[in-house]
């Protein structure tokens, strides 16, 4: 055995079973004094009795034999796993890998590369760097594979933390998630996470200071562009009625505060007090409108607010108004009867496990939307999903499985089957209800989305919805007339607001379009807004500015302004091109 081999293996446990003789290059067994001509690995086989070509030691102790046998087995397992890993990444054994890499390098070389065979079959000599390059490539591939395994382990640890705390999966969609992960990864090994004490002391304090700076930026936007105050009432898990107040402007939405109004939610005077305090905190001169839902207490508070604060508007929530329109339509005879029967069908199916399982086999696991308590729009969406599964439901109630089940004789089953299969009015009425309400549901989705502010589009959206309803009824006034009247009652008393008319007029996407409706009520709403919110000199300037806007003159008529009318949101468009018209800018954004 060479001196280098000896030095490299001196740490091996098997040396305690070796007799060292000065000047001798071989290992001698401590138990039988037998000379072993190989290295430490061969001596282990000799002591363990596992080498078929070698007579085992007959004097070795049982402990030494088992220790050597276990060490050889572990070495074999590691070698097997290593070879499996190489094969998994497409390399085979180490020698195969080196051969493949040699051929590759030889192919990529200029002719005298390091491959094992040349194009003529002659051996090609290896260059001095070939062995180094082969080793580097192999090591790089192994590192990549181990990194993948290491990532799996890290991901499992993160997942285990989230599961143990019951965190929702969409936590990872939070905008602060990836910055947190990146900064921890960049720190490297040895990072010590913050303690509970740190989280509730200096870290919290610094975050509050940062938010204060951000709030100042929002305040500047409120002063420059104006803002809208929105109130959002909801009930928490303890049945407390909470009201959140938020402020919206081109800078974004800012949460102001939350109030527990459990004892005063129905008191219009106290609701007025809450809203008035928020307006005072922001500054009346910065507030364009206050948006609430249409409950009587909010209506009372809104009217009183407009009496006290003469330069701002109270605006009912558009989404709530449309939902109430759908509720009114749902009370019409045809709609009420159809919705009632549809609820019975859905309730029966989802109320019995066997029936639900049978339905899913026929609908290919498509679910029926079940009516919710909060929004009347959901009831009509249930009708739509029910109609989409019409053929599947007919097939289900006509199937042998249904006819051979116990439900075929039960009252609930008989009624539901009769509605689905034999009621001549059920499916036609379902279709009629869908055609007369889906356009309104589409408007509701639009105003609830965050893709664009709905304020400047509500006029056009409602007109378009009414036209679609009339078209779906084939222009027959006796069919769409009752629907229109229900819409107009809510529209006239709640949504027909001067501020909506002003935003419609100042929306460049609509104002310069062919379908723009420049009727008296739109112009009247715009002028009413200017009279209310501007003093005489500002009003005079705004009136002159309207000419430039209407005729697309000055900045409004530049090529970039014209081309970006439909590409930018109205808010963004006015921020870019309305700098010379600050009086109008406040209404537009």
From TrEMBL:
Residues 29-51 form the C2H2-type domain. Residues 108-118 have a biased composition (Gly residues). Transmembrane segments: none annotated. Residues 104-145 are annotated as: Disordered. It holds the Pfam family DUF659. Residues 132-145 have a biased composition (Polar residues). This is C2H2-type domain-containing protein. It comes from Vitis vinifera (Grape).
